[in-house]
Amino acid sequence: MIKIINNTPFESHRRFLDKSIAILRFSGVLSYDTSTTGHLKIFTIFMRILSNIIVIFYLLTMIADAVANYNDLLIFASDSCFIVGWFVAYSKEAVFYLKRHGFSEFIDNTHHPVDVLRQSTDLGLLLDVKECMLYEAIDYYLLSLFVIVLGSAIIISSLILGKLPNRAIFPFDTTIPFYYRLAFFIQTYNTVYHLVVLITIDFISWQLMRYTTLQLRVLSFNYINCKGDSLRPVSPGLTREYIGALKISSVFSIDDQRKEICQFTAFEESEMTNISVTFTERFKTCIKNHLRLIRVVKDFNDTFSYSLMVQLGGSLLVICLNSYMLVMFPGDKDNFIRSTAYLVSGFTQLLYWCAFGTQLKFQADFLMKSQWMSGWENSYDRGIKNLITTAMIKTMQPLEIRAGGLFVLRMETFLSILKSSYSVFVLLTTVTD
């Protein structure tokens, strides 16, 4: 049962998104809008230039160390892991920076319909939104904890041991105190910067996929509810009462049947009162929203396709190389801790991406079944056949997240990368033996 507590506020689903965007703007990855003061714009440019100089210089020192120690398998493999991680992080940062001018519009196209959905009086829909918000909060706090723990562990352990966080070859003598502190600053800045920015970018991307999946679920029920009762006008008082009645802690105690959406739901303000009660008009509204979601997924693929390709390749190498170092150098404690942390991170990051891609594809594939269950056979409109045919043709086109236009993000891809990582791992160990 849901605990009813009146006047309980319904949190904004954008609060973690706004915090994440603020972090990227502060880091120089995203730009401030035209209404921002000049001081902040100058600060953003400064952070962007400073960060690029430091992270590129850091990469060169790592490459120099890997080249100088190519005969030492442990050092070369360890440096390679850091270099691969650098390319994964930097590719995502570069994509966000290049797409920064259209990013706000992309966010609004994805999140604005959710603002409208939250005004619904349908309890099932509100529960779905609450569930998304709960998972979003869990993701945000877990990722924040991960950044704090891992970043602090790297810095504190280096200070205690009196050595640099990572191996590198600098063009100056790091045994001199001043140059040692400079090298320490470069490495810690790069570590913290990439950790924060990479995790923030992934978080934003995952939430875009989560709320797109939510809208696909709502659209599926809209197709089914084309034959239902007329759309009820939203009552502001009733909406606040429903929203205030839902405690986020009680969402998981409700069975799936209670979470079914029973009303034909509006995605835009104009749809709240202007939708006809006829089947044909409702079905046309569903097609319009279906086309909008197709564009949203296309924009997501256009934005992240390249960086996701780098992500898949980077995850494969990180999992493979760290597994290799764990097996081949079991007596090195520092290597064991570092390799385990990177192995778990690479595994979890890849799992998250593929899990979100699987959920989105599942909801997209369910659309055709929903169209078939819409009650079209009971409609006697002359043009209903063409309408249904047009809608189903659109549904037959794959709606999925792709990496590089080649690999679909789904659990099968996750398992395929694990198998490929194991194959490369066996090859490395065989050649070493």
TrEMBL record:
<keyword id="KW-0716">Sensory transduction</keyword>
<feature type="transmembrane region" description="Helical">
    <location>
        <begin position="182"/>
        <end position="204"/>
    </location>
</feature>
<dbReference type="GO" id="GO:0007165">
    <property type="term" value="P:signal transduction"/>
</dbReference>
<keyword id="KW-0552">Olfaction</keyword>
<comment type="similarity">
    <text>Belongs to the insect chemoreceptor superfamily. Heteromeric odorant receptor channel (TC 1.A.69) family.</text>
</comment>
<dbReference type="GO" id="GO:0005549">
    <property type="term" value="F:odorant binding"/>
</dbReference>
<dbReference type="GO" id="GO:0005886">
    <property type="term" value="C:plasma membrane"/>
</dbReference>
<keyword id="KW-1003">Cell membrane</keyword>
<feature type="transmembrane region" description="Helical">
    <location>
        <begin position="341"/>
        <end position="360"/>
    </location>
</feature>
<feature type="transmembrane region" description="Helical">
    <location>
        <begin position="49"/>
        <end position="67"/>
    </location>
</feature>
<dbReference type="InterPro" id="IPR004117">
    <property type="entry name" value="7tm6_olfct_rcpt"/>
</dbReference>
<keyword id="KW-0807">Transducer</keyword>
<keyword id="KW-1133">Transmembrane helix</keyword>
<keyword id="KW-0472">Membrane</keyword>
<protein>
    <recommendedName>
        <fullName>Odorant receptor</fullName>
    </recommendedName>
</protein>
<dbReference type="GO" id="GO:0004984">
    <property type="term" value="F:olfactory receptor activity"/>
</dbReference>
<dbReference type="Pfam" id="PF02949">
    <property type="entry name" value="7tm_6"/>
</dbReference>
<feature type="transmembrane region" description="Helical">
    <location>
        <begin position="308"/>
        <end position="329"/>
    </location>
</feature>
<keyword id="KW-0812">Transmembrane</keyword>
<feature type="transmembrane region" description="Helical">
    <location>
        <begin position="73"/>
        <end position="90"/>
    </location>
</feature>
<keyword id="KW-0675">Receptor</keyword>
<feature type="transmembrane region" description="Helical">
    <location>
        <begin position="140"/>
        <end position="162"/>
    </location>
</feature>
